């Protein structure tokens, strides 16, 4: 088992290296000069040059060929990409071009917001999606089955941003039950231990803070959960249906096991495998930040942050943020693979 | 023992069932499903209204502007105040939302078709080739092409460093040679030695004209490239590399990649289509590849090979028709996804350039006015997105059930 | 002596999109305690379906047992509710299936699956059950039984998996063991081992066994009595000696005739029965075998022949012309 885990981790490394390269390339290719973006259109050429030199933007991208021709090996390797990789290995993500704050700092502030939202959404999605899927599978072609399958298709087809807006319209504007945005109402303070407000407020016994952060998080979480919920429900159903056709289910019944035990003990464990994969993928997607939801609900997460940086040509943020997102994605996939091996003994003995 | 002569009718009378084709069967199943019928209805309605309105209902978005009608609620009868009918109300610039929603369908349809077309075409070819060459050995010509391209890529590297064209050319030739003369020198060591030295020379010597250190670097590069070329690269290697690249693209969440591409290419609906299309390529590549792999081991492929059919023929006549089912399903769902993604991009202001009517952009324009009560500007475009996406999803779902080989009698 | 099992007029139908499949048509027979019954026929003749029907394991929809009584130990199984049936399954009747790889749950150890059966029907503790499971595995001839309890099905070879399935089937000491083509998916050498094992077990435990197969050779070694089925009905039944030495039904004759024999002269052609089995969606009137039968007459196409006794229970056949047909015995 451990050997399998190690092998999987190793196979991720080339992908990660490729990912850092792609990230680097990409926003270098985006037209637009961050120096000009910072200083404005009418800045003088000298000040632009100065800023560019400060930011290291005047070094060549990969290798300094002219330096090579001159025989200067040091300058040959002094390039943007190599400097970037060097800093990465020291976990130095640089400073935001526009705000001059270290990227790592902002990341530490904004990432927990995304984590909290994603976790809650996935939990909602799983707690509703999986039971619905099992129920549908066990009562195939009944009314419950048709209704829930259509409902999940509707969930999958729903544009999140629209659902979010509808929620705001109903609950914030018309009914005035819930606030329309942000993580906390003004005037509330929650001690930041994990920076996950729901958990922190519970730990510190801050009941009012808990209620307030809950009221803020519930709408975006539900909106974000609809698509994964639909996907999970459908996947659970189809996986269960496949498993219920298998011979070993017939054997279990022939032994005298009752419907419920057969379903939950024999069928579910086998059906869980593809479902776990899907849950993991969805969690990964959510963790990577949901730009749209964050925009509508003014949620301070990394999705919107990276998006703004891409458009604002703020390279360090784009690099740092995208790297984090890609890392999360790859990491979640790795965890899913390992979970898979834990659930299915056939895989780990290969 | 009394022997009776068999009667008039033949023995096989009882045994044969009516012949039914795969597609006919699938169509029957599709039609009989309620949800699939609903999906088909919505899709047909969508396509019809989009095309019809584009060609027959005039609309010039740039000229559409009437501040006097700004943000009016839906009205079905003409009043003094509002001289025209607006079933869906008007938006912040006084434009009739109903008309824009209907015309927006055309844009969404186009995006869907182009984006999915790109993903399907490139992803499909990649998947087909990787799946195929993972199991089949390459013919000499195919191998020559592969080596040639590899040589070209290596050559590009040296050329760029030394700023000379000659390495590019020489390496391509070297690659082609490596492909042609695979049996050239029997022992691996000899081959490695030969190509390595040759590579070093070809790359380093011309670079001497530029400078000694350049020559050194190029020489080293040449040596490594030559060594690599001397390995017997084969289909499996190529497929591995290809899938790794796909994996790398897949390690980015779709939306991020799409935004980045659009940021790179600039705004506009066409660029948005390309972005969504490119993001989808690895999905189709993976799907096609796994479909190919599952078909390739079947007996009829073996049979075709043993009869001596060429690779091209096998791919087109045998493999492709048998992998159509999952691809059709994915394409339909992919259309749904593309429409959603286009709307998302539009909402963020990337994608369609105002004042082009696009559902996501319409939402992006109007959501600010939600708190002041203009619900119609947000409800209707969103509803349009949801319904069209739902239609394609229902249809795709129905197709999946109808084409499911396990359900075949 | 009252028979262990008595089946009366069993009919099972499948209601599908394409029509009604008449899978089991009016099947009646009895089995005694300690008897080994071979149920023989080609694919689709209803042999598996009738066994599943007995245990109420037919998926409903689309299947339905439309008629019949299945008397086991003073109870008509078909009148039992699902809960009552669960008590019968595994304990009074056990069934083992054809493909041991897919018939065992891949994510649980073999030991777990046997223990599960034991705990379900017996009042034991977990460790008692585990010990018993180990004994059972030894009984069926798996080396190193105790250790193998913690292995997963994919770690067993084909033959051993089938042995494990047999162990599971025997675990609660059922009165009747139904074996549905247990050796079809196995190599011939393994097949022989399994047959020997079953013979030995039957000797030791004096169980009743119903062995379902399409392979006449297999069943010849094992069975006391044979039911030959065709298109959902029993067309010939009786003691094994009678079936093989005094075959009466044209189908059985054809079946036996198609087996190659060691004492055939070289160059002898294999005899095959012309035509194909009938479509169960559209069973013709009269005898199901009529279309392929070289002895058929008008009556065969119109009226279905009932099972007529030739020699009491020891030999019965469903054919209008059985008296005219001299039994084909071994050459």
What is the residue-averaged pLDDT of chain B?
Answer: 77
How big a fraction of the residues of chain B is strand? Answer: under 5%
Distance between the termini of chain C: 36 Å
Biggest protein-protein contact in the assembly = A-B, 54 and 49 residues
Q: Quick one: how many beta strands of chain B?
A: 0
Report the portion of residues of chain C in β strands.
15-25%
Specify the overall morphology of chain C.
globular
Q: Please compute the radius of gyration of chain B using only Cα atoms.
A: 30 Å
Biggest sheet details of chain C: 8 strands, mixed
Which radius of gyration of chain C do the C-alpha atoms yield? 21 Å
SS summary, helix count of chain C = 12
| Topology of chain B as a string of helices (H) and strands (E) | HHHHHHHHHHHHHHH
The biggest sheet of chain B amounts to: none
Q: Give the overall silhouette of chain B.
A: flat
Instruction: Report the end-to-end length of chain B measured between terminal Cα atoms.
Output: 42 Å
Q: Which class do the helix and strand fractions of chain B yield?
A: mainly alpha
- Sheet/helix structural class of chain C: alpha/beta
Helical segment count of chain B: 15
Helix content of chain C: 25-40%
Topology, number of strands of chain C? 12
Structure description:
The complex is a heterotrimer of chains A (350), B (409) and C (331). Chain A is mostly helical. Helix content of chain A is 75%, strand content 0%. Chain A folds into two domains: 2-89, no CATH class; 109-343, MetI-like fold, CATH 1.10.3720.10. Chain A has helices spanning 2-29, 34-39, 45-54, 65-70, 73-77, 80-89, 103-138, 143-157, 160-174, 197-203, 207-244, 247-255, 259-287, 291-297, 302-311, 315-343, 345-348. With 409 residues, chain B is mainly alpha-helical. Chain B is 70% helix and 0% strand. The relative contact order of chain B is 0.14. Chain C contains twelve helices and twelve strands. Chain C has an eight-stranded mixed sheet with strand order 6-7-8-3-9-10-12-11, sandwiched between helices. A four-stranded antiparallel sheet of chain C has the order 2-1-4-5. In chain C, helix 8 links the parallel strand 7 and strand 8 (208-213). The two termini of chain C are 36 Å apart. The mean pLDDT of chain C is 85. The interface between B and C is medium-sized, with 14 and 21 residues.
């Amino acid at each position: 088992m451990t050997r399998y885990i190690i092998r999987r981790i190793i196979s991720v490394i080339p992908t990660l290296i490729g990912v850092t390269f792609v990230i680097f390339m990409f926003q270098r290719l985006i037209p637009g000069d961050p120096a000009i973006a910072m200083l404005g259109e009418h800045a003088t050429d000298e000040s632009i040059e100065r800023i560019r030199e400060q930011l290291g933007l005047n070094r060549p991208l990969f290798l300094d060929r002219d330096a090579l021709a001159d025989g200067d090996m040091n300058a040959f390797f002094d390039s943007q990409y190599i400097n970037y990789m060097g800093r990465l290995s020291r976990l130095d993500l640089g400073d935001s071009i526009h705000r001059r704050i270290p990227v790592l700092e902002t990341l530490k502030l904004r990432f927990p917001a995304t984590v909290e939202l994603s976790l809650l959404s996935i939990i909602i999605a799983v707690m509703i999606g999986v039971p619905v899927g099992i129920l549908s599978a066990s009562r195939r072609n009944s009314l419950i089955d048709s209704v829930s399958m259509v409902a999940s298709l509707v969930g999958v087809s729903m544009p999140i941003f629209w659902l979010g807006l509808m929620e705001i319209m109903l609950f914030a504007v018309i009914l005035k039950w819930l606030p329309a945005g942000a993580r906390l109402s003004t005037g509330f303070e929650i001690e930041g231990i994990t920076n996950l407000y729901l958990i922190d407020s519970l730990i510190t016994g801050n009941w009012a803070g808990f209620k307030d952060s809950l009221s803020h998080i519930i709408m975006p979480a539900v909106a974000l959960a609809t698509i994964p919920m639909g996907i999970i429900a459908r996947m659970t159903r189809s996986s269960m249906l496949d498993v219920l056709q298998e011979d070993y289910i017939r054997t279990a019944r022939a032994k005298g096991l009752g419907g419920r035990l057969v379903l939950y003990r024999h069928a579910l464990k086998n059906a869980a495998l593809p479902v776990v994969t899907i849950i993991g993928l969805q969690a990964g997607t959510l963790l990577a930040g949901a730009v749209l939801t964050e925009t509508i609900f003014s949620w301070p997460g990394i999705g919107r942050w990276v998006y703004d940086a891409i458009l604002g040509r703020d390279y360090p943020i784009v690099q740092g943020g995208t790297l984090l997102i890609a890392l999360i994605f790859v990491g979640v996939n790795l965890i899913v693979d390992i979970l898979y091996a834990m659930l299915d003994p056939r895989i780990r003995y290969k | 023992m009394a022997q009776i002569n068999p009667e008039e009718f033949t023995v096989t009378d009882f045994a044969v069932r009516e012949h039914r084709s795969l597609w006919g069967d699938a169509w029957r199943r599709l039609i009989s499903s309620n949800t699939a019928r609903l999906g088909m209805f919505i899709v047909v309605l969508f396509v019809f209204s989009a095309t019809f309105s584009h060609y027959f209902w005039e609309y010039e978005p740039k000229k559409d502007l009437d501040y006097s009608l700004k943000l009016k609620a839906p009205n079905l009868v003409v009043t003094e105040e509002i001289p025209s009918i607006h079933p869906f109300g008007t938006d912040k610039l006084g434009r009739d939302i109903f008309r824009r929603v209907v015309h927006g369908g055309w844009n969404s349809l186009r995006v869907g078709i182009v984006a999915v077309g790109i993903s399907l075409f490139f992803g499909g070819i990649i998947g087909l080739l990787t799946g195929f060459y993972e199991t089949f050995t390459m013919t000499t010509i195919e191998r020559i092409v592969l080596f040639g391209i590899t040589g070209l890529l290596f050559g590009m590297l040296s050329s760029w460093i030394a700023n000379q064209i000659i390495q590019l050319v020489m390496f391509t030739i070297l690659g082609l040679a490596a492909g042609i003369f695979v049996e050239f020198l029997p022992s691996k060591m000899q081959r490695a030695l030969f190509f390595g030295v040759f590579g070093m020379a070809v790359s380093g010597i011309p670079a001497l004209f530029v400078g000694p250190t350049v020559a050194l670097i190029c020489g080293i590069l040449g040596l490594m490239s030559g060594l690599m070329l001397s390995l017997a690269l084969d289909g499996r290697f190529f497929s591995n590399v290809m899938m790794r690249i796909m994996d790398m693209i897949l390690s980015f969440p779709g939306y991020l990649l799409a935004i980045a591409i659009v940021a790179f290419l600039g705004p506009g609906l066409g660029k948005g289509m390309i972005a969504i299309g490119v993001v989808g390529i690895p999905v189709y590549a993976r799907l096609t590849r796994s479909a190919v792999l599952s078909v390739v081991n079947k007996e009829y492929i073996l049979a075709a090979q043993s009869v001596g059919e060429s690779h091209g023929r096998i791919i087109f006549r045998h493999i492709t028709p048998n992998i159509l089912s999952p691809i059709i399903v994915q394409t339909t769902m992919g259309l749904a996804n593309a429409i959603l993604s286009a709307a998302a991009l539009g909402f963020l202001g990337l994608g369609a350039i105002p004042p082009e009517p696009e559902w996501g952009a319409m939402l992006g324009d109007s959501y600010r006015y939600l708190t002041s009560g203009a619900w119609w500007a947000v409800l209707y475009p969103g509803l349009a997105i949801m319904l069209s996406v739902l239609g394609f999803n229902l249809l795709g779902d129905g197709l999946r059930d109808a084409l499911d080989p396990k359900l075949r009698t | 002596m009252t028979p262990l099992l008595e089946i009366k007029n069993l009919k099972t139908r499948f209601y599908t999109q394409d029509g009604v499949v008449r899978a089991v048509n009016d099947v009646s027979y009895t089995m005694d305690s300690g008897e080994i019954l071979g149920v023989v026929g080609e694919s689709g003749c209803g042999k598996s379906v009738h066994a599943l029907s007995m245990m109420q394991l037919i998926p409903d929809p689309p299947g339905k047992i439309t008629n019949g009584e299945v008397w086991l130990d003073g109870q008509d199984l078909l009148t039992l509710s699902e809960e009552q049936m669960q008590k019968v399954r595994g304990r009074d009747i056990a069934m083992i299936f054809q493909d041991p790889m897919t018939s065992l749950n891949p994510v649980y150890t073999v030991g777990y699956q046997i223990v599960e059966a034991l705990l379900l029907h017996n009042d034991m503790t977990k460790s008692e059950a585990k010990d018993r499971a180990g004994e059972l595995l030894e009984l069926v001839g798996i080396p190193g039984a105790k250790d193998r309890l913690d292995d997963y099905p994919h770690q067993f070879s084909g033959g051993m998996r089938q042995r494990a399935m047999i162990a599971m089937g025997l675990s609660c000491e059922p009165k009747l063991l139904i074996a549905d083509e247990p050796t079809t998916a196995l190599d011939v050498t393994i097949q022989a081992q399994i047959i020997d094992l079953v013979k030995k077990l039957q000797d030791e435990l004096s169980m009743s066994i119903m062995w379902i197969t399409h392979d006449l050779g297999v069943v010849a070694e094992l069975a006391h009595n044979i039911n030959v089925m065709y298109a959902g009905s029993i067309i010939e039944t009786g003691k094994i000696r009678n079936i093989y030495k005094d075959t009466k039904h044209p189908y059985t004759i054809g079946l036996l005739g198609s087996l190659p024999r060691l004492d055939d002269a070289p160059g002898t052609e294999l005899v095959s029965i012309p035509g194909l089995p009938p479509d169960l969606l559209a069973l013709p009137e009269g005898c199901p075998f009529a279309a392929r039968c070289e002895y058929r007459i008008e009556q065969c196409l119109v009226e279905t022949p009932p099972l007529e006794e030739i020699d009491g229970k020891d030999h019965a056949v469903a054919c209008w012309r059985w008296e005219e047909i001299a039994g084909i015995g071994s050459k």
